[in-house]
Specification:
Strand content: 25-35%
Largest sheet: 7 strands, mixed
Helix content: 25-40%
Radius of gyration: 16 Å
Length: 184
């Protein structure tokens, strides 16, 4: 009997883009991000002016997931609360139902805390019920739709928002505070 390898999260780097694109094209064939889109996001993910957090999940030598968050800056930049957007979360099909999506989302919410974000927004395909349930378990609420957002398939997006818990100072309320299990 072999011991299962547990995926390890780490910062996404430029040398991960080929593996990320392979997974991206498998999971999102109609509206996959381009190489240039990932390069652009990574260009804003390092240094003192960073506004992005992109991570990958590796199982041994294999990339089995990735996720990214974009911040509109820090609260100290403008004196008001900053916001963030979940740009992407992807989990290899053979890892669906393992809790990896929850782990990736938790990491993005930690980044939102580090960016001092009072709310986190995202768009989710209207037909992606699995993802919607994940976001709802973390406290995201549906606030609207974006008609024809995903192209070329002309699929609508459900817009969801997570706001700061009262007196927490952060959008990244721990899952235990929300009563959510990490293995969901």
């Amino acid at each position: 009997m072999t011991t299962p390898v547990i995926p390890v999260l780490r910062e996404m780097r430029w040398w991960d883009i080929d593996s990320v694109l392979e997974l991206e094209r498998d999971l999102f064939p109609e509206d996959a991000w381009s190489r240039g889109m990932f390069w652009s996001e990574l260009a804003h993910s390092r240094g003192p002016e960073a506004t992005r957090r992109f991570v990958v999940a590796e199982e041994g030598e294999r990339l089995v997931g990735y996720a990214g968050l974009a911040s509109a800056g820090t609260a100290s930049d403008s004196g008001s609360a900053a916001g963030a957007d979940v740009q992407t979360i992807a989990v290899a099909r053979d890892h669906w139902g393992t809790g990896l999506g929850s782990v990736l989302l938790t990491e993005l919410l930690r980044a939102a805390t580090a960016f001092e974000c009072a709310e986190v927004m995202l768009e989710c395909r209207i037909d992606n019920i699995r993802a919607q349930k994940l976001y709802e378990r973390f406290g995201f609420e549906a606030i609207g739709f974006r008609r024809g957002y995903y192209q070329p398939g002309n699929v609508d997006a459900l817009v969801m928002r997570l706001t700061t818990a009262p007196d927490s100072g952060s959008a990244a309320v721990s899952t235990s505070e929300r009563g959510t299990e990490i293995n969901g």
